[in-house]
Write a structure and sequence with these properties.
Layout lengths: L8 E6 L17 E5 L3 E5 L1 H11 L5 H17 L3 H21 L2 H18 L3 H19 L4 H18 L4 H11 L14 H15 L9 H14 L5 H16 L2 H11 L5 H29 L9 H20 L4 E6 L2 E5 L2 H14 L3 H7 L1 H7 L16 H8 L4 H33 L1
Parallel strand pairs: 1-4
Antiparallel strand pairs: 2-3, 4-5
Helix pairs in contact: 1-2, 1-3, 2-4, 3-4, 3-5, 4-6, 5-6, 6-8, 7-8, 8-10, 8-14, 9-10, 9-12, 10-13, 11-12, 12-13
Length: about 450
């Protein structure tokens, strides 16, 4: 595959007001010094807050568990909780799995996200494999017990992330995902048409995992079924579905899979007459499918906006399919450049771009922090940030300051409750202290 002489760079700035990579190494500190009302300096022990949040996962009230999971998610987004994970890895994992088994849709979504963050924090190894092994059955059962789009999307996302980190062979997880949109029907099974949101979530997760595997291992039949289905999605009304399908097809073409199947079909025509005819039919079908996809991509790259069409979504679609078309016609992969603090993160393949976009969506506001400090994610993209802050520095970034100082922050609310408890205990001690002093003065 070639590269453009005049390459179009897609630049994006994340947390642009966090100049010079001013992010603290607060994951190594037991506590941060925070300012309350601009004057009162307090020691806020985040480990204590996380301990309380994990303990709250044992509570019977679902709303309490939901709040605790929100605290855990925000804490794992804002810092890499290595010390906490060393102590509470198994407890946190199994309590989150319990929430997936018995919780409300909101609790299931939060628990799924927490498990994904836990996997990204521990990185590849025994713990990541344990997360995948322990989670695969509860996740599979949860898929069967619900049809709510947001819940299924969260479960799919969780399965994708934990497989990406802890799985050596993602094919099993990919098959589980595929059955959500193309179920294998039995005599007593009634097909439920999946929503556009579910299709988008499944295809995006499937593409994300596809980037990690050797596509040449899969059988031509499985590939042909997948490509045929993805081609049909390009004709759907929902734009997010079309974009997800376009990205998946781009990865498939980048892996050279379609050409491989065509070559296999053409090369296997040396056997019997009947086998030769089948091979010729297969070769013709694959060539026709590729031609159809080319035409679909060309049309979508120049689609006119219809009534009520969101301009941003339309532009995203056009830009994506222009890149896909250029790749199919000339072999040029889109190149992107993104600012992470003071460093530049670049991608030059479809697989890298799909991985980057998926992890950005999953981590949200925690993406920059993880890119700068999470060695596993850095290894995925070959990214080495500049170490401008000394280990143990108490400086925190502007985004972290906003997160902690915002009155609506989950962590800020939890911290307020924690501080109120400490003040009540302190007040009780002070009453006794003052009583002693008064007695001394009277004597």
């Amino acid at each position: 595959m070639g590269k453009r002489k005049n390459q179009r760079k897609n630049a994006a700035m994340l947390d642009s007001d966090d100049d010079n990579s001013s992010v603290s190494s607060s994951s190594t500190m037991r506590s941060d010094r925070m300012s309350v009302s601009g004057t009162e300096e307090v020691e806020f022990n985040k480990d204590s807050l996380l301990d309380e949040a994990v303990d709250a996962l044992y509570e019977k009230r679902g709303s309490t568990r939901e709040k605790a999971l929100a605290v855990i998610i925000e804490a794992f987004n804002s810092n890499l909780q290595h010390q906490f994970v060393e102590k509470k890895f198994a407890t946190l994992l199994h309590q989150c799995l319990n929430s997936i088994k018995k919780g409300s849709s909101k609790e299931i979504s939060l628990a799924s996200h927490a498990i994904g963050l836990l996997a990204l924090t521990v990185g590849p190894g025994d713990n990541a494999r344990e997360i995948l092994e322990e989670s695969i059955t509860p996740l599979s059962q949860a898929f069967k017990s619900c049809s709510e789009s947001s819940k299924i999307a969260s479960l799919v996302e969780c399965l994708a992330i934990i497989t990406f980190v802890g799985g050596n062979d993602p094919e099993k997880a990919m098959q589980i995902m595929w059955q959500l949109v193309i179920p294998k029907l039995g005599s007593n099974v009634i097909a439920v048409k999946p929503s556009a949101a579910i299709i988008t979530a499944v295809v995006s997760a499937w593409s994300f995992l596809l980037t990690t595997m050797d596509g040449w291992r899969l059988s031509p039949k499985l590939w042909q079924e997948s490509i045929t289905y993805l081609s049909s999605l390009l004709d759907k009304d929902d734009r997010s579905v079309r974009i997800a399908a376009g990205e998946a097809l781009a990865v498939i073409f980048e892996m050279g899979s379609l050409e491989k199947f065509a070559a296999e079909a053409k090369g296997s025509s040396d056997g019997s007459v009947s086998e030769g005819n089948k091979s010729k039919e297969g070769f013709s079908h694959i060539q026709g499918l590729k031609s159809k996809i080319m035409n679909q991509v060309r049309d979508l790259s120049a689609e006119a906006g219809g009534k009520g069409s969101a301009k941003k979504d339309l532009n995203n679609q056009r830009n994506l399919f222009k890149d896909v078309l250029e790749f199919l016609e000339d072999g040029y992969c889109p190149e992107t450049s993104m600012k992470i603090g003071g460093d530049s993160l670049q991608t030059s393949t479809w697989s890298q771009l799909i991985q980057l976009n998926y992890l950005r969506r999953f981590l949200g506001g925690g993406f920059t922090k993880h890119m700068q400090e999470n060695e596993f994610i850095q290894d995925v993209f070959g990214f080495t940030p500049k170490r401008k802050n000394l280990l143990g520095s108490e400086h925190i970034s502007n985004s972290e300051k906003r997160m902690y100082k915002s009155p609506n922050s989950v962590i800020n609310k939890a911290r307020t409750q924690f501080m109120n408890k400490q003040r009540m205990l302190s007040a009780g001690r002070n009453i006794g202290h003052f009583a002693v002093n008064v007695g001394d003065e009277d004597s």
